[in-house]
Amino acid sequence: MRLMGWYAFGVLALPALGQAVQFNRDIRPILSEKCFACHGFDPKTREADLRLDEQEEAYKPDKHGTAAIVPGKPDESLIWDHIMSDDEDEIMPPPESHKVLSDAEKNLIRRWIEEGAKYEKHWSFETPVKPDVPVGPGSEIDRFVAAPLEKLGMRLSAEADRPTLIRRVSFSLRGLPPTIEEVDAYLADAAPDAYERMVDRFLATP
């Protein structure tokens, strides 16, 4: 169901129901946007001598014996205390940064700590691993989208008809609607790869 290809990016951005939280996929983007400016690799901007970009540093207890992250124990983790604080001098990220954690981001961080707060190397240093593709109809992307939706009792929308598909492709690739001749040609093309060849034609035209 090709119409779901664009929607997939939004759905897959969050771990599916019952799926483990992953550092690179779910947590690193949050910390990178909201925390690394003050608690990252740059010693010139680092505050409180705290690094959250490295596991060893995040796990290391401070002079009071408290660690920023205690794997499996969010309520004993200093980072969680600061995230949930009502004190403007204690809450993180600080108000003046204008970087507010959403409830969804807070929940992800808590789940990640509860699940062991496992760090991962940056994706560029990780060997790509092809995931198991869920069983079902449609393309591989459709099946990845459908799997978490089914667990929530939801279903994919019906596949878009051909006139809708060619309009979407044309606007996405060229910023213009397809011509009548292009629509007629696509509707008359009964070949299994008609969609793919239509996309190739649009990519080849200015």
Shape: elongated
Count helical runs.
Answer: 10
User: How far is the N terminus from the C terminus?
Assistant: 27 Å
What is the helix fraction of residues, given as a range?
Answer: 40-55%
The main sheet comes to: none
Number of strands: 0
Report the structural category.
Answer: mainly alpha
Oligomeric state of shown chains: single chain
Low-pLDDT segments, ≥5 res: 1-13
Whole-angstrom Rg: 23 Å
Order of helices and strands: HHHHHHHHHH
Q: Beta-strand level of the residues, as a percent range?
A: under 5%
Overall average residue pLDDT: 88
Structural summary, described in words:
This protein is mostly helical and 206 residues long. Among the domains are: 97 residues, no CATH class; 43 residues, no CATH class. It contains 10 helices and no strands. It is elongated, with a radius of gyration of 23 Å.
Brief account:
This protein is mostly helical and 206 residues long. Residues 1-13 have low confidence and may be disordered. It is built from 10 helices and no strands.
Key features of this structure:
206 residues; mainly alpha; elongated; disordered N terminus
Would you spell out the secondary-structure blueprint of this structure?
Elements: H1 4-11, H2 23-34, H3 36-39, H4 55-59, H5 78-84, H6 103-114, H7 140-151, H8 162-174, H9 180-188, H10 194-204
Helix pairs in contact: 1-7, 2-6, 8-10
